[in-house]
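Before relying on records like the one below, remember that each one covers exactly one chain. Contacts with other chains, cofactors or solvent are not represented anywhere in the record.
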Amino acid sequence: LAACLYRAGRAAEADSLHVQARHLRRRLLGESHADVATSLHNRAAVLEDLSRAAEAEAHEAPRHRALTET
């Protein structure tokens, strides 16, 4: 749903859903799971679109760690 909202130009609404997805994936799959890294990347893309580049960069670093730990 978050991806659909994002593609529809509703990035702020998508951001909230990406946050929820990341929390659920982290809790269910563990911090180093690739799906958690995907969630971080998706949120970073939304933040970038919302002109929140510094926050977006902050989400990419843990993503890289998660991908290298798997």
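The chain has a mean pLDDT of 85.
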